[in-house]
Amino acid sequence: MTADLSLAMPLLTTADGRPLKSALVQAQARAKRRAFWLVAPLLAFVVITFILPIAQMLQRSVYHDGFSASAPLTSEWLLSTEAGAVPDEAAYAALAADFKTMKAERTAGMAGTRVNYTLPETRSLFTATARAADDLAPPYKAAFLALSPKWGDPGVWQAMRSSATPYTADFYLIAADYERADDGSLQKVPDNQRIYIYLFVKTAVLSALITFVCLLLAFPVAHLLATLPMAQANLLMILVLLPFWTSLLVRTTSWIVLLQGQGVVNETLLAVGLVADDSRLNMMYNQTGTIIVMTHILLPFMILPLYSVMRVIPPSYARAARSLGATSWTTFRRIYLPQTLPGIGAGALLVFILAVGYYITPALVGGADGQLISNLIDFHMDKSNWSLAAALSAMLLAGVLVLYWLYDRLIGIDNLKLG
Amino acid sequence: MKKLLILSTALTGLAFAAQADVTVMSWGGAYGAAQNEAHLKPFTTATGIKTVMIDSDNPATPVKAMVEANNVTMDVVSLEYADAIRLCDEGMLETIDPAALPAGADGTVATEDFLPGAITECAVSTDIWATIWAYDSTKFPADAAPTVASDFFDLEKFPGKRGVRKGAKAVLEFALMADGIAPADVYATLATPEGVDRAFAKLDTIKDSIVWWEAGAQPPQLLADGEVVMTTAYNGRIFNAAIAEGKPFQIVWDAQSYENEMYAIPKGAPNKDEAMQFIAYATSTEGLRAQAQYISYGPARKSALIEPLIFSDGKTDMAPHLPTAPANMTNALESSFEFWVDRDSELNERFNAWLTAN
Question: Which CATH number describes the domain made up of A196-415?
């Protein structure tokens, strides 16, 4: 006796006869499409103003055609021969032709700048040779060596070789404190020129410290804001937000007035008698200054996420724990703190990422030992070495992404709550 | 509704027509103010072309960004000599024809009237400025005041903090001159690794007492605050603080390094012809003299120095305050743009490493 399964389980249909399952799938797909089109303008905005510029910056960190575009014939010769090959008459002929073009189009400076990044003092060699380019006649090798003996230096040819392709890892090498030796192999930069790795580590450590101090200061404030009655809480909230709305430069320069050697704090301590005149506290134009001012500026970013998470924590849990005999400390540690963890995570992530990228405050109050990696990125932008600035920024971005991934693994991005 | 639309469109159109014609980017502070009074305002009065002054820490920085992005918003920029040469080599500036520059007030043709090196392919000199060092005279008794560059590095005799510009240029030369090297040998010494080491060793002796500045207006502020007792500075800023604002600052000309300040036109500037007119006006004898009456930078034309220059307060004679005055040139160094064009990136790398190291 075989049961008729089609009778036992009839197919569910909608009012107009379509199978329910496929109708549901269709309706969901339509809803998703509509949602996508609603978000599309914002997505386009983010892609154009955010993703594309970052992609362009990343491309710049590996691309510099200053030499390869201005001196194509020489680049061709360099790429067709091996490293260490002695340049022959053909190479010098190609170089002469390139210099004549460079003089006509005024691109010798660009080419010289690119080679100068690898080997200093080559820039003036290029511009001087370009000025005399029209007088170059065969035999070219002798003509070049007569202009300057540097044209016979294998170091110069090696530097041109590494500049011959527009795509290069040279800027990442510099950003990691490496350089190329004369034969093309990698070696670490001399001790007194190593800064980048040291600054990356220092930036991370200082940002972590600032995040921790912000957390310590923000937690009680947020708790107070969350537990006070609405009227008082609103008033205190205005006090938290007002500095937030004041210009960053105004806040930073106010701190200079407060903390400098002859500033308000030192003068007060001197008047009270806590410090002597020649042992004033050194709080400005050094690392201490950077930490204090950046903590102040980043504090609202920690207070607000913590506040919005704390506001929705029901007080009944803490009361229940106390009624069951827990001490204040145990209640805080085992009941209250875990519930605020999403807010702590959000605030810490926000403050850390902001601190890592800050450069105005360290530039104004940091002096010599309060400098962060972002100040060097700004320095290289100023000096028009955009490729190196891009390489340093890319490394910073990579570091932050790694930290984000770690955070996701340990705590989970879904556990991040801003309110 | 339609009338409102037409009216508002017409008014918006008018707003576009009323935009300034020549935008000048300079260094701000007392220098920018001096150029505003001496060049921009008289130019507008004389020709009717409107001018706008924009301030910046270093106008050379945005030039490359603007030219590469094809979005040049400045017509005229004020550049240091080495930056002007470098940007010209990189094709970031328009070329300037010396024939377009007016003759001097005494009839000398422009190319002869300007001091040697004052006209380059893409830039024209407006003044000669110097990096000097100054101290607060109330901090030291008159008979025990610092007089030579080595006093700047003497923390025992002259205790207190020092202000120094954050960068290798002019700082390394200053350190070498304070260490006893004559100006004629400075760049030869700096070209050797031992010379660079020597300069950094000299700076190491005061490193912990240095407050680093980046903007030209900071040194007078640091001196006034009492944060430093001696500082390197651009000479015109200290002069303005001392004479115009009555501060007790004293300039020391020993171991000064001077160079030309140039006007240039970024490539692709929106109002190139008006910009050229502006530069011709500003670098004429009258224009250079006018600026020298507001700030103590030496005019770059010989004809500008024939008659005495009086400061805008009506009584101070500018001659002894100019970097090129004979009394100030006894131990002076002409900043070498060839050296810095070549060694800029390398020495600044070394400087940054030295700065952050402990």
Answer: 1.10.3720.10
Query: Does residue B18 register a pLDDT over 50?
Result: no
| Cβ <8 Å between A262 and B90 | no
pTM of the model: 0.82
Give me the residue from B58, B86, B345 closest to A117, CB to CB: B345
Q: Is A171 on the interface with B (CB under 8 A)?
A: no
Instruction: Convert the pLDDT of each residue in B112-169 to its tens digit.
Output: 888 888 899 899 999 999 999 999 999 888 888 999 999 999 999 999 999 999 999 9
CB-CB neighbors (< 8 A) of A371 in chain B: 355-356
3-state SS track over chain A: CCCCHHHHCCCCECCCCCEHHHHHHHHHHHHHHHHHHHHHHHHHHHHHHHHHHHHHHHHHHHECCHHHHHCHHHHHHHHHCCCCCCCCHHHHHHHHHHHHHHHHHCCHHHHHHHHHHHCCCHHHHHHHHHHCHHHCCCCHHHHHHHHCHHHHCHHHHHHHHHHCCCECCHHHHHHCCEEECCCCCEEECCHHHCCHHHHHHHHHHHHHHHHHHHHHHHHHHHHHHHHCCHHHHHHHHHHHHHHHHCCHHHHHHHHHHHHCCCCHHHHHHHHHCCCCHHHCCCCCCCHHHHHHHHHHHHHHHHHHHHHHHHCCCCCHHHHHHHHCCCCHHHHHHHHHHHHHHHHHHHHHHHHHHHHHHCCHHHHHHCCCCCCCHHHHHHHHHHCCCHHHHHHHHHHHHHHHHHHHHHHHHHCCHHHCCCC
> CATH 1.10.3720.10 spans which residues of chain A?
196-415
B13 touches A at CB < 8 Å: no
Fold type of domain B19-128+260-326? D-Maltodextrin-Binding Protein; domain 2 (3.40.190)
Interchain CB contact of B194 with A (< 8 Å): no
Question: Which CATH code fits B130-258+330-356?
Answer: 3.40.190.10
* A262/B227 Cβ within 8 A: yes
Determine contact: A106 vs chain B, CB below 8 A. Answer: yes
